[in-house]
Amino acid sequence: MKDIQLLTTHEQLKTLSDPFRSQLLLRLMEKPMTGQQLSEVFELSRARIHYHLKELEKHELVHIAKKEEKNGIVQKFYQSVSRGFVADRSLLPHPEEMSESVRQMMINMLERSQKRVLSAPEEALHEETGSQDPTEWKYLSAAFEFKATEADFKAWQKKYFALMEELSDMQKQNPSADAKTYYFHSLGIQVDEPLFNRQKSEGES
């Protein structure tokens, strides 16, 4: 699976703008799944699931990752071709579709993250330290607003992705039996108006 796939057609943008298809795509970014498995997840008929899978496959957003035979029936496992998508500059004449496809993916990622939080084990949410320092907690939950130029944001983002790669590589280099799986969802986007009105405390510069 590629890290980033370039979207080169207007039809690809329209396909990603469909709320349900972007939900399917997010599931198939996580792992390969069959039409039957997806129909059980979304509680929809296999026929409807296969229709949407074929549309995603036609526009080269998913592919058949593997096939398995079970009880004489060949099962096809579909998977996203990439972990992320970005529109080619040639699609700039279609800004509405570009914005809507990104918006739908973000919304569906938020909904998927909500489900991951709801299904997290109880121990993941037990904070025993009692510390007022969030960096001491064993989970991460925070929201921020900052003033920055676009150049500032992009420069910081490079450092952020490098930091995530560093965390990912730690267990690859030194595997530990105590290692747990951590799920991250990051969202950084320009907004029209700030919602956080942070007042400075006395003595704070």
Tell me what you see in this structure.
With 205 residues, this protein is an alpha+beta fold. Helix content is 43%, strand content 11%. It has a two-stranded parallel ribbon with strand order 1-4. Strands 2-3 form a two-stranded antiparallel ribbon. A hairpin with a 2-residue loop joins β2 (62-70) and β3 (73-80). The model has no long low-confidence stretch (mean pLDDT 90).
- Backbone shape: globular
Portion of residues in helices?
40-55%
Mean pLDDT: 90
**Poorly predicted spans:** none
Determine the structural class based on helices, strands and strand pairing: alpha+beta
The CATH architecture of the largest domain is Orthogonal Bundle
The CATH topology of the largest domain comes to Arc Repressor Mutant, subunit A
Tally of separate domains? 2
Please provide the count of β strands. Answer: 4
Widest sheet, order of strands: 1-4
CATH superfamily of the largest domain: Winged helix-like DNA-binding domain superfamily/Winged helix DNA-binding domain
Q: How many helices in DSSP terms?
A: 6
How far apart the termini lie comes to 48 Å
Biggest β-sheet strands, sense, barrel: 2 strands, parallel
Return Rg in Å.
Answer: 21 Å
- Beta fraction: 5-15%
For the record, the CATH class of the largest domain is Mainly Alpha
Helix and strand run: EHHHHEEEHH
Protein name: Winged helix-turn-helix domain-containing protein
Pfam family, one: HTH_5
Domain HTH arsR-type: 11-91
Organism: Halobacillus naozhouensis
